[in-house]
Structures are given as structure tokens and as C-alpha cells.
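Entry 14. Structure prediction run on the chain below.
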Amino acid sequence: MLIGDMAALGAALSNSFAVILMRVAGYQVPPLALNFFRICIGLSLTIVTLLLLGEPLFVSLSGEQYLRLIISAVLGISIADTMIAASLNRLGASLQALANCVYTPAIGLVGFVMYGEVLSAWELFGGLLVLSGVFVGAALKTSTAARRDIWLGLLLAAGAHITMGVAILIVRDIYRDVSLIWVSGFRLFIAVVAIYAYAAVRFHGRLGKALLLGFYRRDMWRTLIPMGVLGPYVGMLFWIAGFKYLEAGRAAIYNQMSTVFIVLLAYFLLGEKLTQRKLIGVVLAIVGAVVVASQ
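Output returned:
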């Protein structure tokens, strides 16, 4: 369980840095091209890791299991991650934290429906503290964007987190028996193929500008490459490991700490104000995570 706890927290921290970098890059690279570039970086590193460790590039699974992995990749990476990038462009880092609150209850609900998992009273209390901290700390600044963009951004972010939850839990039996690195690499490969196929049909004749802009913008690589390393590679491995070793609801509570990290990183790296309200939210969320970890 300690490995799972550390992995879930590591996923939150890694993905928080990736979100901040995605926010910076999103000013100049559109969501689809941004997501495609970061996934390609993650896939490349995952393949190298598999080769260095001597792990196979093909694993013997049933057709039904491969189908679920493909669905998981398309939903959780190709679609959900693109939705996250699009919501960041509309909301900014701090405001998106409000929509992220749906992540923990969504994972817990999916875990209950699919696997009958029930958290203990203390774990529920800790999760409530985390969510309370997120709600308190996320400042809704309507002056930063048009009202329509705010609501669309909130819906995109909330929908993305629900989609991610379903996508990762429908293949939990697979990544509990198969190499985490292989599962991560296969999902990234499918996501790359799915996005490329969509862009080839949707942007016929404009594929370079619509999808490959991240590869052309060498001036942005200092931001784009670390974003790909921290998100689809490091963050993905930690995220899957958390769900492998922990119950879905417990892992999600730790993952929710990413919102707290984003608020802090937005202050230190993006210059966003760290108000008293945000500080109270950070304290509540950290106490909640400690309560969960102590059980």
C-alpha cells in the first residue's frame, strides 16, 4: 500500500507541473497539436524504457482485453487529455481547479459501480477534507474570461476527469497482471494513432499546421519536452501504479492533491495571486491527504 500511496502522490505532483507547462505552451500551440506532441514524447520514452529493461513490446492478451485497452486509450488519452488542454486555454490554472473537484467522487463512484469498492469512514472523511480544500482554494474569477468560455471550460475539465476515471478502471484487471510500463506504452501508442487518424480526416491538407505544430516550434521545445516527460511518461506510470496497488477511491483522493499543487505552482511559476482563501484550501487538502495516508 505504501508503494501505491507514493505513486498516487507522485502522479499528482508530476501532472501538476505538466499542467502548468501545458498552460504556458497553450498560448501558442492549439490543444490537439499540444496533446499529440506530449503523447509522442511519452511514447518514445516508454519504448526506450521497455527496450532498456528487456521487456517485450507485445504481450499475449485476449482480443477482448486488447479491445478494452484500445477503448481506454482513446477515451482517457486521445479525448480526455485534449479536453484538458482546451479547458486550460479557457480557464487558466487556478480556475480549472474548481472543475477538477469532480475527479475524486467520479473515481469513487466508478469504483463502487464496477468493483463494489467502499472506502472506510476515515478515508471518506479525509477525502471530504481534500475536496473541501479544493473548493475553498479554487477562486472563481469571472473577469478572466467570458462567461460562455468559463462554463465551457468547466464542462470540458469535468467531463475529461470523468472520462479518465472510466478509461483507467475498465482495464484495471489488465494492468494488475501485466507490466505497468507496457500498458502505459500501449495506451500511448493507440492514442497517437487515434489522434493522427482523426486529424488526417478532419484537417485534410492542413495536417502539418493542425497536428504537427509542436514539432515545428523548436523555440517552444524547452516547455513542450518537459511537459511530455512529466505528463504522459512519469505522471502516467505513477497514475497507473496508484490504481494498481490501491482501491480506486483511495488513489483518486491522492490524485486530487494535484489541484493543491497547481494552485501553489501557479503562484510561484505563473505569478497568480495566492490569496488567504487559497491558503486555507491548501491546508485543508493536505490534512485530508494525511488522514487518508494514516489509515
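The two ends are 10 Å apart (CA to CA).
Filed with the rest of this week's runs.
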